[in-house]
């Protein structure tokens, strides 16, 4: 996975409104870690149906942060989880990791 | 254009709210993290448009659509492209936005909204918020106005052009519709649980599978009405 998270989409939406950008990044910095923990907890309990629901939310963050391939993978992973298939878990976790690092960097 | 945003993700609501700022005359009057809160709000406050997420816990966007009476125009927002075809089965759904929503796509949506509202002026019946639980209801039977106390009504069933009001003592057949009587009933006591039934949910004896027992009547609960019923119950 070579793509890296970026703020292009957020800048497009903000139209240069820096106040919105700051507010929005704060929201992402709050929301994403919670969803990551929630996802991990469901996965640990082998509750794949609920894991899929959290992946559904996380994939939106991938899209916001310009991770197009990551978004597509999350779409597939979400569907797989509904059928009890976790083969994309490792790849998904790598993307989660890169988003987490990016969020820490921009904090 | 007064709109509300319903989405369980704060980030998604923030994006839609920011995009709304780019559209003249569009005012975001409230945001809700779940559909139930939105449902309560629109019962008492007039809005012209709802940006509605499909995938939400408890009450989904689809459940919301099936529950709400006289819905305003709705723009669906979701990450699930597969719902698009189903979405247009409802005439009040104006557009379908796939997340993350681009500025360009949102502008197209705004154009659609503009032409939709030009065709249908922004008007909605006023909702009566001054209902009092202690009030009575008068029904017209053979040119006689009969007073029924709300607390005595067990359930109301739609039967063609008529409704049947069942009290503990009697059944009354009235030329009216469920929709009309629903507007006259206090929400704190009555709930529609099926397209043909409104119940006084304080009179429920038990709930089993997809039916409710009230006195000796077994009333079906429709899938779309079940979440609201469960929400109203004081569950242990």
From TrEMBL, chain A:
Domain of life assignment: Bacteria
Keyword entries, A-Z: Kinase, Transferase
InterPro entries in the record: HPT_dom_sf
GO MF annotation list: kinase activity
GO biological-process terms attached to the record: phosphorelay signal transduction system
Protein name: Histidine kinase
Originating species: Flagellimonas aquimarina
Taxonomic placement: Bacteria, Pseudomonadati, Bacteroidota, Flavobacteriia, Flavobacteriales
Automatic annotation (TrEMBL), chain B:
SUPFAM superfamilies: CheY-like (SSF52172)
InterPro entries in UniProt: CheY-like_superfamily, LytR-like, LytTR_DNA-bd_dom, Sig_transdc_resp-reg_receiver
Domain HTH LytTR-type: 137-235
Pfam families: LytTR, Response_reg
UniProt superkingdom: Bacteria
Single GO MF descriptor: phosphorelay response regulator activity
Location of 4-aspartylphosphate modifications: 53
Key words, A-Z: DNA-binding, Phosphoprotein
Domain Response regulatory: 2-114
Protein name: DNA-binding response regulator
UniProt source species: Flagellimonas aquimarina
């Amino acid at each position: 996975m070579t793509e890296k998270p970026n703020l292009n989409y957020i800048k497009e939406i903000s139209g240069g409104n820096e106040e919105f950008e700051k507010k929005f990044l704060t929201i992402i910095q709050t929301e994403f870690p919670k969803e990551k923990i929630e996802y991990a907890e469901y996965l640990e309990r082998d509750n794949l149906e609920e894991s899929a629901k959290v992946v559904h939310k996380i994939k939106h963050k991938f899209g916001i942060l310009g991770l197009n391939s990551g978004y597509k993978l999350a779409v597939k992973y979400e569907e797989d989880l509904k059928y009890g298939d976790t083969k994309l878990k490792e790849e998904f976790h790598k993307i989660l990791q890169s988003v987490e690092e990016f969020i820490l960097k921009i904090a | 254009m007064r709109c509300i945003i319903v989405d369980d993700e704060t980030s998604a609501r923030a994006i839609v709210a920011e995009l709304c700022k780019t559209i003249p005359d569009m005012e975001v009057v409230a945001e809700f993290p779940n559909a139930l809160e939105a449902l309560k709000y629109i019962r008492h406050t007039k809005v012209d448009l709802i940006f509605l997420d499909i995938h939400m816990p408890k009450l989904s966007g689809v459940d919301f659509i099936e529950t709400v009476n006289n819905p305003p125009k709705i723009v669906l927002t979701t990450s699930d492209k597969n719902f698009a075809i189903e979405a247009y089965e409802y005439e009040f759904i104006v557009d379908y936005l796939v997340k993350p929503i681009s500025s360009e796509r949102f502008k197209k949506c705004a154009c659609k909204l503009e032409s939709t509202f030009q065709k249908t002026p922004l008007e909605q019946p006023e909702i009566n918020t001054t209902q009092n639980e202690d009030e009575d209801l008068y029904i017209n039977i053979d040119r006689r106005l009969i007073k029924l106390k709300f607390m005595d009504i067990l359930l109301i069933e739609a039967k063609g052009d008529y409704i049947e009001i069942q009290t503990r003592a009697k059944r009354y057949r009235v030329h009216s519709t469920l929709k009309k009587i629903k507007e006259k009933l206090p929400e704190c006591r009555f709930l529609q649980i099926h397209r043909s039934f409104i119940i006084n949910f304080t009179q429920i004896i038990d709930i089993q599978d997809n039916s409710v027992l009230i006195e000796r009547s077994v009333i079906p609960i429709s899938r779309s009405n079940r979440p609201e019923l469960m929400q109203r119950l004081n569950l242990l």
